Amino acid sequence: MIEQEQANAGTTTIAERFRGFLPVVVDVECGGFNAQTDAILEIAAVTLGFDGDQLCRRDTHFYRVVPFPGANLEEAALKFTGINPFHPLRIAHPEGEVFRDLFTKLRAVMKQEGCKRAILVGHNAHFDHGFVRAAAERHNLKRNPFHPFSSLDTASISALCFGQTVLARAVEAAGLLFDNASAHSARYDAEITADLFCHMINRWQQFGGWPPPLPATGSADDELTDD
């Protein structure tokens, strides 16, 4: 019995650590900065889990996306990402299909982990969150797993931990490797952001920044207010 209690004490669940939320690290590569008018070209979503008390990456869901009808594509954005949305060998899927599939997969993970809602984690999360919400609205997707306005921003957390807000510099300050040649791919950016987020959460715990669990006072069903 004592051994079992010790084993359980060393195990953390996502639902316990994040108040019933499932953190999902998202990166979106787009044809511009306006979520209402500009195309989503790639999206990657990385789920997380605990190995003992260490947060780590689990699965990466990556999609190349066909621009929605009438979507704007800024030449400067395409040059920055290096994405050619009309390349004949590019395997891409319609935006509605992509988000239906992604949302279905995330809801399955939420159920498995005992979470009530997903929360988007991103580097400058407001940007990615806006594009995800806009796509869900375009295709009338009622079961969007993400919280409608809350997110976790690794740029802000990096500023606290390292005094850095640029992704590459924050990654280097954390002692991780950043591959500039792979940057601006949704898959790579989401995975390296996930590694950075996990590193900061794990180090915060090691330094005593996360106390032992207290009796629950709320859950993901609660809505945040301005009070």
Can you put this structure into words, describing what you see?
- This protein has 227 residues and is of the alpha/beta class.
- It is built from eight helices and six strands; from the N terminus they run H-H-E-E-E-H-E-H-E-H-E-H-H-H.
- The protein has helices at 2-9, 14-17, 75-81, 95-113, 125-138, 154-162, 167-173, 186-206, and strands at residues 21-30, 40-51, 54-66, 93-94, 117-122, 146-153.
- A six-stranded mixed sheet has the order 4-3-2-1-5-6, with helices on both faces.
- Helix 5 (125-138) links the parallel strand 5 and strand 6 (146-153).
- Helix 6 crosses helix 8 (186-206).
- It is globular.
- The chain starts with a helix and ends in a 21-residue tail after the last helix.
Topology overview:
Layout: H1 2-9, H2 14-17, E1 21-30, E2 40-51, E3 54-66, H3 75-81, E4 93-94, H4 95-113, E5 117-122, H5 125-138, E6 146-153, H6 154-162, H7 167-173, H8 186-206
Parallel strand pairs: 1-5, 3-4, 5-6
Antiparallel strand pairs: 1-2, 2-3
Helix pairs in contact: 6-8
Compact summary:
The protein is an alpha/beta fold.
Computed over alpha carbons, the radius of gyration is: 18 Å
Choose one word for the global shape. Answer: globular
Chain-averaged pLDDT: 90
Please list the strands of the largest sheet in the order they lie side by side: 4-3-2-1-5-6
Largest sheet: 6 strands, mixed
What series of H and E elements makes up the topology? HHEEEHEHEHEHHH
Enumerate the spans where pLDDT stays under 50 for 5 or more consecutive residues: 1-9, 223-227
SS-based class? alpha/beta
Separate helix tally: 8
> What is the helix fraction of residues, given as a range?
25-40%
Please tally the β strands and state the result: 6
Beta-strand content estimate: 15-25%
Between the first and last Cα atoms, what is the distance in angstroms? 44 Å
